[in-house]
Design a protein that fits this description.
Immunoglobulin-like, alpha+beta, 9 strands, 2 domains, nine-stranded mixed β-sheet
């Protein structure tokens, strides 16, 4: 028995083209990684991470219409402490005078529910009482302005349906 080893001639990619392909792949990968990292870092540092602040509320009307109690909850999941949270109702809501902390506020006048340093990961709440103008089942809107220790602010709209 006779064995013969013959080499088959294969055509391959030349070393120059292979080197150029590897360089092109490495450059493309570097561009993708750069775009991902700058996008991620930019998203975490814009306006103090304020998009991570959660605002919620409840509006309770004990008799179905008339006076009501508003509870506003704020949770700071941002990357900066919160130094102030102000709440303002719209004049169009027609709500009677609110009282917060013993002081009276007319519609459109902001009241501050928090004026200290709310650390990252902490929550706070504020309670305001409205004298008149609230009807169970109606939805009311407040503007919440959050100020961060870095000086940036964020404005959120809080819409709450009144409940008995």
């Amino acid at each position: 028995m006779k064995f013969s080893l013959k080499q088959k001639k294969r055509s391959a990619v030349s070393p120059v083209i292979a080197t150029l392909l590897l360089i092109a792949i490495a450059v493309a990968a570097a561009i993708i990684v750069y775009a991902f990292v700058t996008g991620l870092i930019g998203g975490l540092t814009t306006t103090g991470g304020s998009s991570l602040v959660q605002v919620s509320g409840t509006l309770t009307v004990p008799s179905g219409s008339g006076g009501a109690t508003l509870v506003v909850n704020v949770k700071n999941s941002a990357n900066n402490p919160i130094t102030s949270v102000q709440v303002t109702t719209d004049l169009a809501d027609g709500l009677g005078v609110a009282s917060y902390g013993g002081a009276g506020y007319g519609a459109g006048t902001p009241f501050t529910i928090y004026a200290a340093s709310l650390p990252i990961g902490q929550s706070t709440s504020g309670v305001a009482t409205y004298a008149t103008g609230v009807t169970a089942g109606d939805t009311y809107t407040w503007t919440v302005v959050i100020t961060f220790s870095a000086g940036s602010t964020q404005t959120q709209t809080l819409s709450v349906t009144a409940q008995v």
